[in-house]
């Protein structure tokens, strides 16, 4: 099996990107479909993405592809054409765009990896076939269903994602991983088998798998937001609809958050004042992900506690 990787250090790659200061789009896309020859598929994706100056992470498995990447803005049309022609299944693929441009610091390198799953669901039931999924709803339908008493919105993201932003009254399935959520959501939602259930996540990949799992477990009226939170916001902006999501959207790159509304619904871990600024503890043996305001970042030297601060 061939091995493709970066020969330049992360530090040098980061410096190169910052020096260029080239306006970039952050994109995400996924597609569940069967990939037979994983190695050759991975190699072709890497070679072409490298040629298009793409940075970010791409996961490939027998169940499909999942990508979070950044790309120079001027190359986007060419890249989109390439992707649509790369495989017949990818023709017309929905590509989620970031809300902002000039995201030069989102990713520093390109990584294309083969995984057992493109999203780690932890499902081991041999009878489960990822086939039937919930009904897609667009931004207009989302806004209508948010006001429906017979509809429950279920956030299929981790608790730290939910904390800084979510739809009004959306149900949190408390967890730190998607695997935990899928175990818990069936139990938590038993009371609502006769209600409409709308599931959502960042870009759609987790909630699509979750709706299939819900249907497998006997739930009938299951929906999911097309393109997830990112798709909803972009569509609402395009159609000039009210954006009802409150707070910020957690993203899995160096930016950590994208502001959607001006609402700050979370608080600093140390002073309890409003903040949505996620950081990792500066003490490397801790590296805890937590919310810290600007003042506390100075007082605690970007650490989560005085003990960690004394250790650096």
From TrEMBL:
Superkingdom of the source species: Bacteria
The protein's role, per its UniProt record: Catalyzes oxygen-dependent 5-hydroxyuridine (ho5U) modification at position 34 in tRNAs, the first step in 5-carboxymethoxyuridine (cmo5U) biosynthesis. May be part of an alternate pathway, which is able to bypass cmo5U biogenesis in a subset of tRNAs under aerobic conditions.
Protein family: Belongs to the TrhO family.
Organism, scientific name: Buchnera aphidicola (Aphis craccivora)
Keywords (A to Z) from UniProt: Oxidoreductase, tRNA processing
Signal peptide start-end: none
Catalysed transformations (reactions): uridine(34) in tRNA + AH2 + O2 = 5-hydroxyuridine(34) in tRNA + A + H2O
MF (Gene Ontology): oxidoreductase activity, acting on paired donors, with incorporation or reduction of molecular oxygen
Keyword Oxidoreductase among UniProt keywords: yes
Protein known as: tRNA uridine(34) hydroxylase
Gene3D superfamilies: 3.30.70.100, Rhodanese-like domain
């Amino acid at each position: 099996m061939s091995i493709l990787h970066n020969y330049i250090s992360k530090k040098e790659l980061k410096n190169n990107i910052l020096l260029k200061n080239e306006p970039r789009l952050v994109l995400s896309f996924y597609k569940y479909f069967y990939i037979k020859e994983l190695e050759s598929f991975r190699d072709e994706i890497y070679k072409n993405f490298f040629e298009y100056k793409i940075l970010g992470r791409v996961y490939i498995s027998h169940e499909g592809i999942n990508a979070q990447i950044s790309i120079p803005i001027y190359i986007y049309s060419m890249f989109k054409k390439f992707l649509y022609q790369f495989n017949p299944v990818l023709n017309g693929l929905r590509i989620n765009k970031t809300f902002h441009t000039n995201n030069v610091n989102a990713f520093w390198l390109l990584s294309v990896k083969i995984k057992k799953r493109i999203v780690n669901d932890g499902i081991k039931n041999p009878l489960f076939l990822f086939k039937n999924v919930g009904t897609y709803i667009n931004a207009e339908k989302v806004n209508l269903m948010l006001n429906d008493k017979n509809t429950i919105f279920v956030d299929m993201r981790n608790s730290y994602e939910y904390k800084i932003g979510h739809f009004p009254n959306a149900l949190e399935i408390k967890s730190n991983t998607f695997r935990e959520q899928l175990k818990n959501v069936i139990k938590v939602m038993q009371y609502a088998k006769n209600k409409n259930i709308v599931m959502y996540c960042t870009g759609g990949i987790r909630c699509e798998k979750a709706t299939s799992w819900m249907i497998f477990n006997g739930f009938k009226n299951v929906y999911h937001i097309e393109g997830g939170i990112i798709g909803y916001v972009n569509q609402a902006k395009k159609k000039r609809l009210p954006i009802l999501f409150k707070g910020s959207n957690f993203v899995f790159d160096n930016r950590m958050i994208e502001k959607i509304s001006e609402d700050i619904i979370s608080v600093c871990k140390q002073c309890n004042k409003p903040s949505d600024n996620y950081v990792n503890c500066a003490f490397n043996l801790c590296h805890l992900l937590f919310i810290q305001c600007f003042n506390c970042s100075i007082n605690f030297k970007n650490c989560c506690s005085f003990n960690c601060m004394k250790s650096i």
